[in-house]
Amino acid sequence: MKKVILSLVALVVIAIIAGIFYVLTNLDSIVKAAIEKYGSQATQTAVQVDRVRIKLGEGDGAIFGLTVANPKGFELRHAISLGETGIGIDLKSIREEPYVINHITVRDPRVFFEVNANKKTNLNELKKNLTAGQPSAKQDKPADKTSAEPRLIIRRITFEQGRIDAKVTPLDKDYELNLPNINMTGLGGSQGATASELAKEILQRLMDAARNEVKKKGIDAELDKLKAGAKARVEEEKTRLKDEADSKIEEEKQKAEDKLKNLLR
Fold first, then answer.
1. Is the pLDDT of residue 98 over 80?
2. How confident is the model at residue 220, as a pLDDT?
3. Domain chopping of the chain, boundaries
4. What's the pLDDT tens digit per position in 204-256?
């Protein structure tokens, strides 16, 4: 019996070691799958990653070619595209949640701002998707022990050397704008936040920064003029139709009065 118990213990130990080895040797693909899963859930569009490189022993990693697809109804393929993303991990935190990421540096981010023929904006639609679900990650709330997603704290995230490609279909114009460097700190609060919550918070801030740059360019003002012109034309058409209708009523009224006069003669 003693030998059987020892054998079972040995099998369990081997299984645990094998599991750890699998996780460590497949960490890149696991992280890639998690980003695509939770990112897609947060944005309600396709989030894809070209590849991931994690060096757990050194506490750093990198993500390459992360893209967020445009919502339906827009011509451009992507709403957001990130170049190389460097990650610094706090190795002391990997034993238990919340896991701590010291810094994330995103180089060459691109935001694709698009206004379609219906005057809808892709970033607004994407923001609606983000705000339709869970609350913001910046809230310092207690950890949900039942959550299936791991909880994280991001001490600092930086977007640098970015740009904005704007396509405004109603104006038949394209624009290229610089995206100012963006620094965010203390994401996840002290209790941590889930990957979905963090994705929402980060993407919202990134889109808000891009939206502000677009406003500075005066695109909003041009669209407002276009809307005002369209509204004025609608009002003019209403007035014309009303005048035509009033004129026709008067004409029919006059005909009726003439007929009545003829009958009374």
1. yes
2. 67
3. 2-217, 218-265
4. 888 888 888 888 877 666 666 666 666 777 777 788 788 778 778 877 777 76
Q: Tokens representing 133?
A: 């679900």
Task: List residues bridging with 158 in a β-sheet.
Answer: 105, 183
Mean pLDDT for 131-143 is 54
Work out whether strand 85-89 and strand 99-107 pair parallel, antiparallel, or are unpaired.
antiparallel
pLDDT score of 50: 93
Q: What are phi and psi for residue 189, nearest 5 degrees?
A: 65, -155
- Between CA 35 and CA 64 the distance in angstroms is 12
DSSP secondary structure letters along the chain: -HHHHHHHHHHHHHHHHHHHHHHHHTHHHHHHHHHHHHHHHHHSS-EE-SEEEEEGGGTEEEEE-EEEEPPTT-SSSEEEEE--EEEEE-GGGTTSSSEEEEEEEEES-EEEEEE-TTS-BHHHHHHHHHHTSSPPTTS-----TT-SSPEEEEEEEEEESEEEEEEEGGGTEEEEEEEPPEEEEEETTTT-EEHHHHHHHHHHHHHHHHHHHHHHHTHHHHHHHHHHHHHHHHHHHHHHHHHHHHHHHHHHHHHHHHHHHHHH-
pLDDT band at residue 70 using 50, 70 and 90 as cut-offs: very high
pLDDT at 17: 58
